[in-house]
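Reading is simple: each integer encodes one residue's backbone shape. An example follows:

___
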Amino acid sequence: MRARLRSLSGRDQAASAFGAILLRLCDSVGAPGAALVDPEGETVDYAGTIDPFDIRIAAAELRLILKEVSAVSIWSDTDEIILRGSKKSFALVAMEEGYAIVIQLLPHCFSVSYRAVSEAVREASSEAGLPLASRYVEGEHWTRVEVRPTPGDERRPHAIWYGGTWCVVEVLGRYHDADLDRGELGYRARLANGAEVGLVREQLGRWYAEELPQL
């Protein structure tokens, strides 16, 4: 909780809806910071527990790297860059019209949850009025959800927070998918309204629902 409180203090600009989206992303992937940058590398907004100046500079530099990489014909369609370091690691995810989300990761990290990233990209694109990149339109639609685990087994879902209340789910079984990373668990579950959804528990204990029906 202290880390989250720090992320909302010491800001050098007023918080926006983008900041809330980025804060949720940081919490989802355990990142110390994230920023949304425009085509020129200027920070639109940021979130995290690190110095705002540091994430602004990192975001601008990563956006410049994307520009240089994209200028090479064979890499012109680059939509993600990950830099792994012994002290800091970074991920850049390209959005439409030159915007991008830059995430500072933990040292030696070389991956980031695509479920968390895709949710952040969808939300940020909607907030900015940007078209959604085709890879997110055509790909799986994941939404982070709060899950109440089964008593005695924190890795098995009992209920999800859905429609403003706890909704008990019927677990239909486990599923094994090539997209599940090591340490992740996948379930097929049925909601009270009869809809079936996929539920995945990631390594950090965050839960995601696939194609969760909108109320």
